[in-house]
Design goal:
alpha+beta, Beta-Lactamase, 4-stranded antiparallel β-sheet, 8 helices, 4 strands
């Protein structure tokens, strides 16, 4: 096995090990960054929903008090305003979603699905919990969801949700009196849930991973070629010349010129030693003659 082959085998082994370790670490880092990006987007969407609810409750509903005495306007409800706002967003970005899922809603569109009901149960079983995060498969790929509980902290909500007898007649006319009643003060009745697709962020992470690994391979190929050229020029060729010269000297031919000694590296030291050996051997042969 030649010196070049041994060197290249070691080089390939080291690169393969480095490529494997770099691949595992970079994959984990990129996927973690992708998930962090999705979480930040979910937090931003939840913050926007809360801002819409707060704006509606503080600035819209008070302006409609007189009209609300005559007729029920769902547009005055913070939950309705937040849902409609994100409904408009979904027209351009259908992969994002926001829902105020309720176990027993007045508006049927807010009825909690099975997986949403499980989240609400988590909040009902743990009143101290303020949020819940997880991932689920959707028709468009994996999505991360962020949920926060809907608890009856304001007794004003009970005017519409305690019993049909005290609810506004205009609301009963719009939604009926079969659902959305029996709520209690402090009860967790539902959850605000935003869903953000993970596919886009993970695809970006995959693309960055492929680019990074391809760059490493290119760097290795360049390094492999450069190191082989350097090995050939600086080590293998001088050693081959010395080996050929040693063969000629061993047969009594001293016509081989001495090697030029340049520098103080190991090859230069070996060349100087070979030159001394050649001269010594040549003198010894002359003495024997």
């Amino acid at each position: 096995m030649g010196l070049r082959l041994k060197f290249n085998l070691v080089l390939v082994l080291v690169f393969g090990l480095g490529l494997g370790v770099s691949g595992v670490l970079s994959r984990r880092i990129l996927e973690a960054n992708a998930r962090d990006e999705v979480v930040r987007t979910a937090d931003l969407m939840m913050g926007a929903a809360l801002a819409v609810r707060s704006y509606t409750n503080r600035q819209i509903t008070p302006q409609l008090e007189l009209q609300l005495m005559r007729t029920f306007l769902p547009q005055s409800l913070p939950a309705y305003a937040a849902t409609e706002t994100f409904g408009a967003l979904r027209e351009q970005h259908p992969e994002y979603s926001y829902k105020e899922a309720v176990l027993n809603p007045t508006n049927p569109r807010n009825k909690a699905l099975e997986w949403e009901a499980d989240i609400i149960s988590q909040f009902r079983n743990d009143p101290q919990r303020t949020d819940f995060r997880g991932a689920r498969e959707t028709p468009i790929g994996k999505a991360l969801y962020l949920a926060r509980p809907i608890r009856i902290a304001d007794s004003g909500c009970l005017r519409c949700h305690s019993t049909p007898e005290v609810a506004p007649a205009s609301m009963l006319k719009l939604y009926g009196q079969a659902n959305g009643f029996g709520w209690q003060q402090g009860e967790t009745v539902g959850a605000q849930i935003v869903s953000v697709p993970m596919t886009v962020a993970l695809d970006k992470a995959d693309q960055a991973f492929r680019t990074f690994m391809a760059s490493l391979v290119v760097v290795f190929i360049v390094a492999f070629v450069v190191l082989n050229v350097a090995l050939s020029v600086l080590i293998i060729r001088p050693i081959i010349r010395m080996a050929r010269a040693a063969d000629q000297v061993s047969t009594g031919s001293f016509e081989v010129p001495e090697f030029a000694v340049k520098g103080r590296d190991e090859i230069s030291v070996l060349a100087a030693s070979f030159n001394r050996l050649r001269r010594s051997l040549e003198k010894a042969m002359h003495l024997l003659e």
